[in-house]
Amino acid sequence: MALSLVTNLLTTLQPLVEKEVGLLLGVDEEMTKLSSTLSTIEAVLEDAERNHPEDRAIQDWLRKLKDAAYEVDDILDECSTEILRWESKGQSSGSLKKVGTSLLYPFKNVKFRHRIGHMMKEISVKLAAIADERNKFHFRNMVVENRDEFTKSRETSSLLTLPELIGRNQDKEKIIKVLLEDALERDEEFSVYPIIDSEEDRCKIWFKMHDLVHDLAQYIVKDERHMMEYRGSSDAGDRKVREVSTRMLREGDEATHSPFQPDKCDFRKFGSLRVFEARGIDIMKLPSSIDKLKHLRYLDVSGSGFNHLPNSICTLWNLQTLILDRCYNLKRLPSNMKCLRNLRHLHLSRCSLTEMPPKIGQLTCLKELSLFVVGKNKGCHLAELQHLNLGGELRIEHLERVKNPMDAKEANLVGKHNLRVLILCWEDNDESESQENIEELIEALEPHPNIEKLVIENYYGTHLPHWMMDIKNIDLIELRNCKNCLKLPPIGQLPLLRSLSILSMDKVNYIDDDLPDGGPVRGFPSLEVLTMQFMSSLKGLSRKEGKELFPLLGTMKISSCPNLSFRSLSALKSLSVGRFCTCAVLESISTCESLTSLKVGGNQEAICFPEEVLRNLTLLKSLDIYGFTKLESFPNGLAHLKELKSLTINFCDKLKSLQEEGLRGLESLQRLSIRYCKEFSSLSEGLQHLVCLESLEIEACRKLVALPEGVKHLKSLQSVRMSGYSNGLVALPETLQHVPALQYLHISYPTLTSLPDWLGNLTTLQSLIILGCPKISSLPASIQRLTKLRNLYIIDCGRELARRCEKGKGEDWHKIAHISRVGVDARQSQRLVEKWLRPQFGCIVGGSLWAAQGDLRLTNWSEFRAVKNPMDAKEPNLVGKHNLRMLILRWEDNDESESQENVEELLEALEPHPNIEKLVIENYYGTHLSRWMMDLKNIDLIELRNCKNCLKLPPIGQLPLLRRLSIWSMDKVNYIDDDLPDGGPVTGFPSLEVLTLDNLLSSKGLSRKEGKELFPLLRRMEITSCPNLSFRSLSTLKILSVLGPCTNAAICLPEEVLGNLTLLKSLEIYEFTKLKSFPNGLAHLKALKSLSIVRCHNFKSLPKEGLRGLESLQCLSIINCKEFSSLSEGLQHLVCLESLRIIDCPKLVALPEGVKHLKSLQCLQMRGGFSNGLVALPETLQHVPALQYLLISSYPTLTSLPDWLGNLTTLQSLIIFGCPKISSLPASIERLTELRSLSITHYGPELTRRCEKGKGEDWHKTTHIPQVEVYDQTTHLQS
């Protein structure tokens, strides 16, 4: 750490001394002394850091050195900051001085110059004292010789470097003369005048000075990230701190925040800060004192809640990275953003900007700009992008504001060769729909052909641009809501396109509608993922039959495409069909014989699942059926599904049972899940045929109260999860005790009164979770017999059970004392936070209700005999709990709740304090929700679950801060917005971002009244089981959710399989169990960079000619091929090979002579598998000319390391694992002078003893290696 810092300082200082820049500053003598002192210290630092890590005195000396080095860094940084300040000041006033045609930056501030000189002299004295102190430690001199190479690897330094004055030679001489004479006459310290001719030259000075990489979190203090979590914010601060990072901490489904509050922080106390990361802690306001962080390079406040930034941020002259991702409320940026001339990375993903600040095009150092919002004012148009050399991702919004194609062309997207992702967005509004020349405009937005991902959203033209056919490197295309497009361009010809998503393009009939005629055509040759949603006119994948389409298509997702049909897709492995799963779609599924995963749902017609759909799917491994609302029975003929491992049935309300014959053939089934099937009552005795079943899940199937006797035959069953929220189960099914190998049991039944004594018979049980069973008041004594039980969690239980299980005190504690992890909590929360409980407020009904701050759940009202009337409900005084932030009110879904009197008045009495931020109401049977909901002005989230008698929602659209709204199972509600006031324009739900609607059978629309400005910020909407819902366009909506096999008979891989894949970069041959040879004709695979052959057990060798053409291959892996014995001499043709891995190939014991020709090979991994007979490393290995990394593993017969190992002079890392017969190291290892890491893990103490530091016979052979680990695995196993 200190070595890298000092070396960086030296690399900076030496050019300054050589170019006499110190003379201009008036500190040339101090600068020379400083350089000499640092060189003296540097010579011993490597020894100090590496060989004395535990010496406290030396560590104190290193800390003093680092503090001093940081001070030097600050001084040099202040010089550069002053230049930037003058530049900005002159730019805004137009008063920059010039010499000839060059710009002049004077240090007029005498006080500043004197201060810099004084600081330089002070630090020189301090460093000299530190240098003298080194003598008492007797360090060895280990001078860093390759400082240039070292510096290249540490490109994160912020240290000021001026290797030369940039400008014309005659101007340099003139300026130096003027400066020297002027300064001598006034007897003052000299000023510095860097000379530049242009903005480009200005950037060159500062890349030289501050060429920070994007991730400044890896700054100079790479190994010492300063994570700060303050207990308070008023006194927090440290001028020595270079980096502060505060993180949101998550546990389970709850989150807590660091108590450090940046919005209240006085940044003047962090004068040397370079990096400030406050990601995800929801800062509401950045203090204006942030302008005091004059050294700041990296600022990350993503996920914050502020709607603007302070103007003072524009004086952070050194700022290079500003991350504002997910600042959803951020509407505008400061108008002077153009002053941040060093800014290189500006991240604005998912911000809500209305337009960009003016003249952002002046930020010519900018490398990344994730969002550009076209504005209406001067200086905010697309022309600002013209001269920015942007890379990475660029999203352009509000393209409907662009007036003509010439304005669009000024963005110069075609010239941005570093850009990889381009997102073009129009707003879905009248202005977009009426935009003139829109087809010419999108043609003018042509990007550079290097683009890899393209998204076009809300485009109203009838044709997509022609330039889409020129982006040959494109990997992903997404077309969203291009509703006027008549057809797609011939994108099937794009050679590298892997992912295609098409959403809401109602007029498109075919995906492939324009491939050329004549000869065989392989359309979409690289496509792997195809998504089609909301395409009501889509008829098929191709207009013309007989084409070789989609040869690599492995995944296809279909939703709301009612007229679609398709033929067999030979490579298709995964298919998902949701919403409007018509008979035509079902018939098409039956042709996809290669499917291994099928998810199908959204059918409102089928009473019996069509048996012919599954008849040909003999390779199917996973089947998920959901939302077949009328399905009553499952097909009997499933015996052919021999490979099926997972079966899931969800939301099939009419399904009653699985017939015995329907389960008989599922011999490979490992997981069975049945959820939310209201009428399901029987698993049937056919369950016993599932001999491989490992996991059984039954959830929310209210009529299932027993398990069949056949469960005792399920010897593989390890996990059972059973829950039923409205189930009448009062005792666990007795048959459960006979499951012979059960390890995990999760039960959740609110009516369950006790745990049975036979629970102790489940002797294999390791984890027991009991959730939401408040009537269980004690544990059975037999639980002590569960000796293998390691985890017991009882959550949302009664207070009595929690008391009885209290550690060391409760009556039941002795029964569970043997269990490693025990958690018992009467609340539903899974975090036990003491500050949430306030016992002094008292309770109702034996403590089932208590006052709290933070999070409060009031559950099971039907059990509370005291809650007979609103007065009882008022006693908890929720309205007085101003610290409460989250409130959950839950009734049980049963007859007692349904018959409860005065339930509306009772809910009114539970009014909370208006500070509440999150509200959940569940199983409420009243017809109206409470009026106090309209007083919750700070509310951020509302969830309403199963309030089935409610006739309508209160006017929650008026709540100003509501961001998330979820409504489930409210059958009588017709509209979400049903009660906004009349008169004038009204913005309903002004802050709502996420809307979830689930099982609203009567819902007709989002608003009863047309014309309202609803949901202006809505980005995500999820709709499930809302059959009558319709809605108009939502202009801001971003996310809408509306619920080949290779033949193993091949002995030689057919050459024609690879024949046309000339652009192939990666090839993996996997589990060709009978494959013996590889084709010779691979010369056409010029682009191939990676080749992997995995688990091809009969594969023996790579043919010599088969490798000749692979000139670009960089990585070759042969893994778990039991018969593989020869790489062949063809290996020598792989001139670009960098990595070679031979893993678990027990018959390979030699390498070919050709390895000596592999001049690019840097990494070699050889793992023999414990059945390999290798007794000595292949001698040819010594001739690999540039090897840096070598791993030798799992050769139990290898007896020694050869002496020629010392010939591998470029080796930097050597790892040996699982070679127990090696008992010593060869003497030649001392010749490996580049070796930085040696790791040996083995079984046996002898080599460990010989390598013991300072004692062992082999220790002297390894002293030159910085990191040595010799690890005896047997010692670890014994311990």
Automatic annotation (TrEMBL):
A biological process (GO) annotation for this entry?
A: defense response
Question: Where is each Disease resistance N-terminal domain found?
Answer: 6-93
Keywords from UniProt, A to Z, are: ATP-binding, Leucine-rich repeat, Nucleotide-binding, Plant defense, Repeat
Q: Which Gene3D superfamilies match?
A: 1.20.5.4130, Ribonuclease Inhibitor
Which ranges carry the R13L1/DRL21-like LRR repeat region domain? 382-505, 863-970
Task: Give the Gene Ontology MF terms in alphabetical order.
Answer: ATP binding
- Top-level taxonomic group: Eukaryota
- Locate the Disease resistance R13L4/SHOC-2-like LRR domain: which residues? 685-840, 1132-1272
The entry's protein name is Rx N-terminal domain-containing protein
